[in-house]
Amino acid sequence: MNLPGRVTVVEVGPRDGLQNEPEPVATPIKIEFVNRLSDTGLSCIEVSSFVSPAWIPQLADATDVYTHIEQKKDVVYPVLVPNERGMERALEAGAKTIAIFNAASETFNQKNINASIAKAFQRLEKVAAVATSENIAIRGYVSCVLGCPYEGAIDPATVGIVARDLFQLGCYEISLGDTIGIGTPLRARRLLDAVTQHIGLDQVAVHFHDTRGQALANVLACLEYGVTTVDASVAGLGGCPYAEGASGNLATEDLVYMLHGMEIETGIDLDLLIAAGRFITKTMGREPASRLGRLPKGRRQPRYTT
Ligand code: HMG
Ligand code: MG
User: Using CA atoms, how far apart are residues 287 and 74, in angstroms rounded to an integer?
Assistant: First the structure.
């Protein structure tokens, strides 16, 4: 098997996870959650979202959260930004990295951001212009890369074009989002064939939701293909409020356990990561969606660390 020696894990729980919680999570809890994640050795943690609070009330406190977390100097803390207003708010908060997003499905985009793909790109051009002039790094997402809750199958060639156009706006990396967790390893590889027509593999991250239990298998297929950046959400938090049936993201602890057990370095302390997942789910009165996250410490053996 051809596998990388090191993988960068992008933790999206505080944003992609908490955006989907039916009950609001108190701001101090979110702050402690991000701080605990910062202590695990993660190098990138998406903190929150400067989208419209009318659309995602769960993250209406993005400014408070972002301005109160303790930022470590070697950790990147992106925030999601959909438009110029979001960019203004991110700048006011002092964000150094933003994440912009567009979908490979017209219908999903209408439901999620009230815009066609082309109109969203017009907004994002303005966002990227401001970010570039302010020296803010930009990460990009394409949603619905392996299927759409409204349109069904999505042509990988369309994903390639959206990824290309995001990259041309100045994104340092494009994360391919299987928003509804519908992909399989074969389809994930075909997707990478299409996307790498336009951007390099080292600019690709993968972002799988685990709705159909395929996320880890998909990650493995992508690692074998040469991908080295993987998004995940601790405790398997997540979903998308505008994609009915989308369940949680791939759980970060499951991902890290697999990577370490395959002698792939992440720099992450798995016990601290599991503790962060248990902390946030306990405040919600439930257990982590990850089976590993639910196991008592003594039963997590063999304990791989890299
Ligand atoms: P809209 O209603 O069409 O916006 O929403 P608008 O431009 O017509 O403005 C309406 C009002 O909202 C105005 O206020 C604006 O100022 C305000 P008013 O003048 O009426 O008082 N407004 C804002 N306020 C604060 N922050 C802002 C903002 N923008 C406008 N940024 C909009 C369009 C894009 C804003 C909205 O649809 C939106 O925020 N959508 C985001 C939904 C979302 O966050 N979905 C989940 C994230 S994407 C995802 O999960 C996929 C991903 O994880 C990858 C994967 O899994 O595949 C990334
Ligand atoms: Mg997502």
Answer: 30
Q: How far is CA 185 from CA 68, 188, 189, 260, 296, in A?
A: 40, 5, 6, 21, 31
Core vs surface per residue 194-211: b (16+ CB within 10 A) or e: bbbebbeeebbbbbbbbb
Residue type, 18: L
Q: Say whether 44 is catalytic.
A: no
Regarding the beta carbon of 55 and ligand 1, being less than 6 Å apart is answered yes
56 touches ligand 1 (CB under 6 Å)? yes
Model confidence over 164-185: pLDDT tens digits?
999 999 999 999 999 999 999 9
CB under 8 Å to 265, separation ≥6 — which residues?
5, 6, 7, 259, 306
CA of 17 to the centre of ligand 2 (A): 8
The model carries a pTM of 0.97
> Ligand 2 mean position to 301 CA, how many Å?
30
In a domain, 192, yes or no: yes
Of the CA atoms within 13 Å of residue 81, those in its CB half-sphere come to 36
Distance 142 CA to ligand 2 centre (A): 10
What is the distance between the alpha carbons of residues 301 and 202, in angstroms, rounded to a whole number? 33
Question: Is residue 38 in a domain?
Answer: yes
For residue 15, what is the domain's CATH number?
3.20.20.70
96: tokens are 């150094």
Which is nearest to 240 in space by CA: 11, 21, 44? 21
**Which residue, chain included where needed, has tokens 């370490």?**
260
Q: Which two tokens stand for residue 59?
A: 């993250």
Ligand 1 in reach of 52 Cβ (< 6 A): yes
**Count: domains in the chain:** 1
Helix (H) or strand (E) holding 281: helix 270-283
The range of the structural domain enclosing residue 173 comes to 8-299
Q: For the segment 54-66, what is each residue's pLDDT rounded down to a tens digit? A: 999 999 999 999 9
